[in-house]
Amino acid sequence: MAEEQALKNTNLNVNNRGAEITLYWLETSRSHRILWLLEDLQLSYTLKTFKRTADHLAPAHLKDVHPLGKSPIVTIQGGQGGQGQSQSPLVLAESGAIIEYLCDHFGGDRAGLVPKRYDHHRERESNDQNQDQDRDQDRDQDQDQLLLVGSETEAWLRYRYYMHYAEGSLMSLLIVAYFVTSIKSAPVPFFIKPITRMITGKIESVYLNENLNTHFSFLESQIQSAPDGGPFLCGRHLTAADIFMSFPLIAVSGRSTISRQQYPAVFAYVDRLKEADGYKRAVAKIIEVDGSFQDV
Ligand SMILES: N[C@@H](CCC(=O)N[C@@H](CS)C(=O)NCC(=O)O)C(=O)O
């Protein structure tokens, strides 16, 4: 299999607002959630898939697209905001920033992927005649409400929290767990083994075990107490925050770091994420391009 494959979609649909979107997707990586989001936003895009190197890294030429050379990267050419065909494309990196940009510009609200920030909006009979008026009124009320600290909905507050927590707190913990496991199983000479065991044992007893327990007990109770009874983190509907949380949770559920017995709600939530239509469409897309898909 070649290191890089591409699926080019040149039929821009109306949701694209004239923008040509390209996703640089790396196997078994965080980038799968961006593919899932593109599917849920019903955007057309070009998908470039990459294999990891023998050292499990991204191929060096991803640095030609963004200086850090990590995946995901999204480029956007054209669109209605002045980035014309002749100009160089907008280059976006950092999953959270990419998700927010795509939701802001390509209908995160429309697709129900971003919870409402304030719930003052009255139930209205929606018809074409009063929609503009309603939107103006909502905007004015939103402006007024900006001053009221703490008036945001619980769903939105959770949304914002998870849009930071996934990479800011959870991923950094899971990366420590991943390295500890890798060091423990590394093929080192027998006389070195006691040293690696002592170091990893110390990290586990002083830091890792307690933090894993704290984070996953927290997540267990967050899922059980989701607004409107869940079953997603911010309430009844899947949001971009669930998509964002999918990578660390799918990754950890496939390893022995935590068990289904200890955290049944977390594992049931992961099952739900993998059953989501957009996730499955994203998997199907990879199978179409690369011939197979592996989550982590
Ligand atoms: N915080 C960044 C992390 C990006 C990142 O580290 N991506 C990994 C894939 S999961 C990567 O490209 N690894 C390959 C490498 O480091 O060479 C994000 O969320 O986008």
TrEMBL record:
Residues 18-110 form the GST N-terminal domain. Residues 120-144 are annotated as: Disordered. SUPFAM superfamilies: GST C-terminal domain-like (SSF47616), Thioredoxin-like (SSF52833). Signal peptide: none annotated. InterPro entries: Glutathione-S-Trfase_C_sf, Glutathione_S-Trfase_N, GST_C, Thioredoxin-like_sf. Residues 120-142 have a biased composition (Basic and acidic residues). Belongs to the GST superfamily. This is GST N-terminal domain-containing protein. It comes from Elaphomyces granulatus.
